[in-house]
């Protein structure tokens, strides 16, 4: 069992390495470098470019720079931004904190709600609760996030005035200062998250309720709710682990649009701004962080599945 | 009657059967109607739009719906109705080309990986997975920002990035099918590899790919409109729903019609595609896995 | 039937509503009465509705099915209008079910102990503190070894036979008064099945249960039931005592069914029953069996026969039940073709073939090279004569399918040779074989659903070998396809059909046609009748025999069903864990002297004759891999000599010309 664990962790590490290589190589291959971005209109001047490159040590072979970058990343020092002075770790640190806050809140509301709705719509398949929940879910999944966000702002903020529609707090502010502005983005995120997970859980519940062992439990005389909680749900919720993991990873890296709509100072906004500003070192660092989170979350999901699924558990424990 | 014409007839017959099944379902009827409506609209809108979409009129800025301008005017005085009617053209053009391309290249590679199998396949899938762990926006924006916006960049970018998840789907389907007895039977008879891929594998993988393609289209539209919304997609003054929503949302509190119209346009198209994809999957007997979009 | 029946089903009709609003019946006006002490066997094939009837006794109907009319009573309680709590108390309590596929019917996330104690908790009399003891007691009653260890295990860790016994233990937890069994031994090995039947038989006797046993396997029913009810197309067609129904059936369907089952004590092919059972969605005018019946006349096709109750206590649904004697006269046992008369040379030679599935990983190869697991299949040396049928018989793990796949070139052999026609060596990999070799060896698979491409029409299926080996196209291709279809008794109109529009038997015929289209020397048959309905199996066997006589093809016929193998083979090889135990002419192998394993296998066969009891010699143990050295049967052999069986490969003793037994026990003692 321990062996499997170590193997999985190592594989995760390998994935992160491959990702960092892809990021670095991708950025390398783009035309231009930090200097051409920085100097902008002065690019025509060869001397200035050469000088800039010397200053920023860009003339060393890529492998050296890659090694230095990764070394720094492991220790937490992500180097300097394109302007040569700001420490990336500081900027990114703040934004990461904010993104984590939003993600955590969205998860805390969205996941339990999704599981609940998924089970309900699966058990009462094709009846009123299912029809309502599924229709809402389909809407949430098909309509772009910025549309749902905009609509919710229109209704809850502009027309009803219940919640503020935009975040004006600065990036470095402590968490408490983000309330109540953080509520609306949190609601939108939960809504979208919930829809995906709910549909998956619903289909899993339907499958399990049609299985032979649920039929057997019924014919054994097990009362309905006992059967649902003891026999059906533990098996139905197993596949949900993976979907939840994917959604968590998305929460941290893919909510760019939401952050822009609400002006929320998270990693996503930073990413877009940095790309627009051609601040490539920052972009690299963000990419690495997001990818690492993705790998970690998937790893956790894999391990959780291994523990929760009796077939996998016995495979590794009984020898 | 030779055997080859039988297979043509059979494919034709099957197409009709599947279409009938889709139309028999309410989701299919509504979905296909919406999709066809939007395609027609995109084709005909330049002819039916009352005003030129570029025409700015400062005296009409943010005016509410009136008898001349049924949906009012936007912040530059342009007629919202005309812009909304034409708002789907770019989106449908770009995604209409990029989706089949994405499915073709992703499907091709996916089937290839599925057939190769073994260590090579595992290593390559690791790389694909690593690639997928990066947020899609990041990947696309890096390319767009470097090479510029415009159809010439958007189509290849969307094709490339949206083809990658298709690799996984095609690979999984390939794995499933080559394990089945009829493929073994063909192998035992001594048919060539190509013949087996073409005759045994492809007809069975195509169903999965078609459903995947329909889903891809809707996600690609989502991505496209999100990019436009962020300012990285279509460039003004081209009318596009995503861009329109982005422009108009600052004035939402007192001029919501600028937002509502494009929202309805965009949502109805995407819902139409999703409903059609759902009906298609059921008609083909495919169990659609609900995955989160990239 | 006595007045106070325990389970009483009256005039029950059950059906489902199709998409276009039509009501499709699955059960039509069925009556069933069971008293305590009765074991009633419910016999039928696909579309007979037997499973639906059994579940109806518990007041349970699968999703989509509803009651059209009728009553279901359990000890006077109306099961169709009962309050939910009462129903839950009854189910698993006084009335328990043993399901068909226990592997799927046991909840995967709960341990065995938990599932059985749940039954105790819901229905037993024991106080909570004695649940553990109760569980162990139940597991011992079903004769499971190591009950204590078993309680901690999950269902997927158990073998099929063990899972089935657990299901039986769970059903017994409440001390039920009635037991319903839905095909409980499907998919189990011959010896496992025999042991479980004995267990069920003893339980029924000891506890005076009312038992309803649903099965298509007449041998199992003969062993356990004292009364039998035969169902066809949702109706009862025959009821009576086990002896009456199984030994002298009065309904043409039952008669045809019993005649079509291959028997161990017969030397020839059974008489086939034409056609196939009707599907629920087909509308039937007149008697449902009329299309297939040799006694049918105008009346039979026009009006449905009523159920006649005879003085003998039987009930028959047939206008001509008193003319059954005519059927007996019409029965001609087809003499099987006898190719050994003219020895035309060896078609295929297997020389010391060994195949291994396990691939040791890189690490194990480096660190423990001598720890390689024994080959899946080893020491296979057989010469197969032209035109003969060689049967390969064995249980799961015997390697019989593996050998076929190796001959076909789908699985590479570790060592050994395959020689075709005494001259050419067959390459192990099918990709490397020349076209001539490929054409000469064809394979037919077990599951016709899987072996035909769902997107190809029959025409396309047949076109493939014809184009590949003969380069036919256009009109000659179509003409030849029609020819071949005729040989397998399918009409021209089948050409445009897709597999989804064909029945199981028809699909298998297409697969056979496909194999014969290549005009091969050798056809490999991998359990080709196992997935078919009983009444259809004989027709397929008959077809294979006719084709062989026509073309002189050599067959290698793999099956787990000893009677089927006996009916169709000229010579037989008995396999255990991938090694040959005994090989020789069919008559010789199936009679003494026996290899101990052959003895165990033959003894375990359940005959559809209530007067014949099986002889159980070996234990019901499933082995996962062969032993490293010595005889493959050493761990289960009831006649094990001693350590020699563990160390030395058994000697090949030639009992008679062509009949070899691999055993250490000297010939005289066998």
Quick recap:
The complex is a heterotrimer of chains A (319), B (294) and C (670). In chain A, 75% of the residues lie in helices and 0% in strands.
Task: Describe the overall structure.
The complex is a heterotrimer of chains A (319), B (294) and C (670). The longest helix of chain A is centred in the first third of the chain and has 36 residues. Chain A has 15 helices and no strands. The mean pLDDT of chain A is 81. Chain A is an all-alpha fold. Chain B is an all-alpha fold and 294 residues long. Chain B is 74% helix and 0% strand. Chain B contains eleven helices and no strands. With 670 residues, chain C is of the alpha/beta class. Chain C contains 25 helices and 24 strands. In chain C, a hairpin with a 5-residue loop joins strand 11 and strand 12. In chain C, the strands form four sheets. Chain C has an eight-stranded mixed beta sheet, sandwiched between helices.
List the helices and strands and how they pair.
The complex is a heterotrimer of chains A (319), B (294) and C (670).
Chain A: H1 2-29, H2 34-39, H3 46-55, H4 62-75, H5 88-123, H6 128-142, H7 145-159, H8 183-209, H9 212-219, H10 224-236, H11 240-253, H12 256-262, H13 267-276, H14 280-308, H15 310-317
Helix pairs in contact in A: 1-14, 5-6, 5-8, 5-11, 6-8, 7-8, 7-12, 8-10, 8-11, 9-10, 11-14, 12-13, 13-14, 14-15
Chain B: H1 3-24, H2 26-48, H3 80-86, H4 89-116, H5 118-132, H6 136-147, H7 151-178, H8 181-189, H9 193-230, H10 241-248, H11 257-284
Helix pairs in contact in B: 1-2, 1-11, 2-11, 3-11, 4-7, 4-9, 6-7, 7-9, 8-9, 9-10, 9-11, 10-11
Chain C: E1 7-17, E2 23-34, E3 39-43, H1 50-56, E4 65-74, E5 77-78, H2 84-90, E6 95-98, H3 102-105, H4 112-123, H5 131-141, H6 147-151, H7 160-172, E7 178-182, H8 190-207, E8 210-215, H9 218-224, E9 227-232, E10 235-241, H10 242-247, H11 252-260, H12 298-302, E11 308-309, E12 315-316, H13 324-330, E13 346-355, H14 362-367, E14 377-385, E15 389-393, H15 400-408, E16 415-420, E17 424-425, H16 435-440, E18 441-444, H17 448-451, H18 458-470, H19 474-487, H20 504-517, E19 522-526, H21 534-551, E20 554-559, H22 562-568, E21 571-576, E22 579-585, H23 586-589, H24 596-604, H25 643-647, E23 652-656, E24 659-662
Parallel strand pairs in C: 3-8, 3-9, 6-7, 7-8, 15-20, 15-21, 18-19, 19-20
Antiparallel strand pairs in C: 1-2, 1-4, 4-5, 9-10, 10-12, 11-12, 13-14, 13-16, 16-17, 21-22, 22-24, 23-24
């Amino acid at each position: 069992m321990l062996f499997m664990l170590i193997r999985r962790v190592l594989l995760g590490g390998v994935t992160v390495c491959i990702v960092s290589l892809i990021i670095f190589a991708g950025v390398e291959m783009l035309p231009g470098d930090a200097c051409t971005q920085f100097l902008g209109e002065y690019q025509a001047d060869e001397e200035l470019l050469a000088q800039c490159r010397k200053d920023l040590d860009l003339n060393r072979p890529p492998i050296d720079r890659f090694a230095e970058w990764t070394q720094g990343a492991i220790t937490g020092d992500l180097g300097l931004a394109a302007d040569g002075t700001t420490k990336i770790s500081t900027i990114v640190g703040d934004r990461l904190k904010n993104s984590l806050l939003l993600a955590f809140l969205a998860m805390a509301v969205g996941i339990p709600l999704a599981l609940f709705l998924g089970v309900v719509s699966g058990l009462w398949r094709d009846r009123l609760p299912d029809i309502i929940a599924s229709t809402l879910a389909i809407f949430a999944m098909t309509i772009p996030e910025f549309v749902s966000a905009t609509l919710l702002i229109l209704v809850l903020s502009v027309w009803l005035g219940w919640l503020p529609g935009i975040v004006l707090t600065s990036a470095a502010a402590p968490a408490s200062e983000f309330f109540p502005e953080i509520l609306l983005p949190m609601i939108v995120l939960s809504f979208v998250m919930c829809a995906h997970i709910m549909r998956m859980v619903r289909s899993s519940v339907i499958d399990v309720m049609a299985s032979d062992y649920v039929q057997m439990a019924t014919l054994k005389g097990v009362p309905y709710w006992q059967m649902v909680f003891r026999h059906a749900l533990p098996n139905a919720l197993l596949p949900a682990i993976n979907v939840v993991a994917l959604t968590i990873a998305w929460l941290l890296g893919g909510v760019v649009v939401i952050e822009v709509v609400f002006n929320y100072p998270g990693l996503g906004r930073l990413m877009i701004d940095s790309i627009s500003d051609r601040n490539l070192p920052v972009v690299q660092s963000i990419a690495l962080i997001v990818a690492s989170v993705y790998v970690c979350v998937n790893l956790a999901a894999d391990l959780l599945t291994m523990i929760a699924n009796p077939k996998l558990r016995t495979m590794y424990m009984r020898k | 009657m030779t055997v080859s014409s039988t297979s043509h007839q059979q494919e034709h017959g099957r197409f009709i059967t599947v279409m009938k099944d889709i139309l028999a379902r309410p989701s299919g009827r509504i979905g296909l109607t919406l999709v066809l409506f939007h395609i027609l609209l995109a084709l005909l809108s330049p002819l039916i739009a009352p005003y030129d979409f570029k025409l700015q009129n400062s005296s009409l800025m943010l005016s509410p719906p009136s008898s001349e301008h049924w949906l009012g005017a936007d912040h530059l005085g342009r007629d919202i109705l005309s812009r909304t009617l034409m708002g789907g053209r770019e989106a449908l053009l770009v995604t209409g080309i990029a989706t089949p391309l994405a499915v073709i290249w992703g499907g091709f590679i996916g089937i290839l990986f599925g057939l190769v199998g073994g260590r090579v396949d595992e290593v390559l899938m690791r790389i694909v997975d690593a690639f997928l762990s990066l947020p899609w926006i990041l990947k696309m924006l890096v390319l767009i920002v470097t090479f510029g916006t415009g159809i010439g960049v958007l189509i290849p970018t969307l094709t490339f990035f949206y083809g990658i998840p298709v690799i996984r789907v095609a690979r999984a389907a390939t794995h499933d099918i080559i394990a089945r007895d009829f493929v073994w039977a063909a192998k035992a008879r001594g048919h060539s590899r190509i013949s087996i891929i073409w005759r045994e594998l492809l007809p069975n993988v195509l169903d999965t790919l078609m459903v995947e393609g329909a889903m891809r289209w809707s996600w690609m539209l989502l991505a496209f409109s999100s990019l436009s919304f962020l300012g990285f997609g279509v460039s003004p003054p081209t009318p596009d729903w995503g861009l329109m929503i982005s422009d108009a949302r600052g004035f939402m509190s007192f001029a919501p019609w600028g937002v509502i119209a494009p929202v309805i346009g965009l949502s109805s198209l995407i819902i139409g595609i999703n409903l059609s994809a759902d009906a298609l999957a059921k008609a083909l007997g495919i169990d659609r896995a609900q995955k989160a979009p990239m | 039937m006595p007045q106070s029946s325990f389970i009483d089903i009256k005039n029950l009709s059950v059906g489902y509503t199709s998409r276009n609003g039509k009501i499709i019946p699955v059960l039509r006006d069925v009556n069933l009465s069971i008293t305590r002490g009765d074991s009633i066997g419910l016999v039928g094939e696909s579309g007979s509705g037997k499973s639906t009837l059994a579940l109806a006794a518990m007041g349970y109907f699968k999703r989509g099915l509803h009651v059209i009319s009728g009553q279901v009573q359990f000890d006077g309680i109306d099961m169709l209008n009962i309050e939910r709590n009462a129903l839950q108390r009854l189910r698993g309590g006084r009335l328990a079910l043993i399901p068909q596929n226990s592997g799927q019917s046991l909840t995967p996330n709960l341990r065995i102990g938990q599932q059985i104690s749940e039954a105790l908790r819901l229905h037993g009399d024991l106080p909570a503190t004695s649940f553990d003891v109760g569980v162990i007691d139940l597991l011992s009653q079903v004769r499971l070894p190591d009950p204590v260890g078993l309680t901690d295990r999950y269902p997927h860790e158990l073998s099929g036979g063990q899972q089935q016994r657990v299901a039986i233990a769970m059903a017994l937890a409440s001390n039920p008064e009635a037991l319903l069994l839905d095909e409980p031994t499907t998919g189990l090995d011959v010896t496992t099945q025999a042991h479980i039947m004995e267990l069920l038989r003893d339980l029924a006797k000891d506890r005076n249960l009312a038992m309803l046993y649903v099965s298509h396997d007449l041998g199992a029913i003969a062993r356990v039931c004292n009364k039998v009810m035969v169902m066809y197309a949702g109706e009862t067609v025959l009821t009576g005592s086990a002896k009456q129904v199984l030994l002298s059936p009065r309904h043409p369907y039952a008669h045809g069914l019993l005649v079509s089952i291959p028997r161990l004590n017969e030397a020839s092919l059974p008489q086939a029953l034409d056609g196939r059972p009707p599907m629920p969605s087909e509308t039937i005018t007149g008697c449902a069996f009329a299309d297939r019946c040799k006694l049918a006349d105008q009346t039979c096709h026009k009006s449905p026969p009523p159920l006649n109750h005879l003085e003998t206590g039987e009930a028959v649904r047939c206008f001509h039940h008193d003319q059954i004697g005519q059927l007996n006269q019409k029965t001609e046992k087809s003499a099987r073709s006898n190719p050994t008369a003219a020895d035309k040379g060896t078609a295929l030679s297997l020389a010391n073939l060994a195949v291994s599935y396990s691939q040791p990983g890189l690490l194990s190869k480096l660190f423990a090279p001598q720890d390689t697991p024994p080959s899946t299949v080893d020491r296979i040396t057989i010469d197969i004569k032209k035109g003969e049928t060689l049967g390969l018989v064995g249980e799961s793990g015997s390697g019989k399918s593996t050998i076929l796949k190796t001959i076909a070139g789908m699985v590479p052999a570790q060592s050994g040779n395959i020689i075709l026609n005494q001259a050419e060596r067959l390459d192990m990999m099918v990709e490397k074989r020349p076209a001539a070799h490929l054409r000469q060896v064809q394979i037919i698979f077990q599951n016709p659903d899987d072996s035909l491409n769902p997107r190809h029409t029959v025409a396309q299926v047949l076109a493939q070998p014809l184009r590949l080996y003969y380069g036919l196209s256009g009109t000659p291709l179509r003409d030849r396809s029609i020819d071949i279809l005729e040989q397998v008794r399918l009409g021209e109109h089948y050409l445009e059909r897709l597999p989804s529009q064909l029945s199981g038997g028809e699909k298998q015929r297409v697969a056979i046609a496909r194999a014969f289209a290549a005009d091969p020397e050798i056809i490999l048959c991998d359990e080709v009748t196992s997935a078919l309905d009983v009444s259809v199996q004989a027709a397929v066997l008959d077809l294979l025999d006719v084709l062989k006589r026509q073309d002189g093809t050599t067959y290698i016929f793999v099956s787990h069903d000893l009677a089927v193998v006996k009916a169709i083979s000229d010579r037989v090889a008995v396999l255990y864990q991938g090694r040959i135990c005994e090989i020789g002419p069919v008559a010789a192998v199936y009679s003494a002297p026996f290899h101990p394993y052959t003895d165990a296998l033959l003894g375990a066969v359940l005959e559809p004759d209530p007067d014949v009891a099986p002889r159980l010699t070996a234990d019901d143990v499933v082995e996962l891999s062969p032993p490293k050295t010595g005889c493959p049967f050493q761990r289960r052999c009831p006649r094990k000599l001693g350590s020699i069986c563990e160390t030395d490969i058994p000697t090949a003793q030639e009992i008679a010309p062509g009949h070899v037994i691999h055993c250490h026990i000297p010939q005289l003692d066998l």
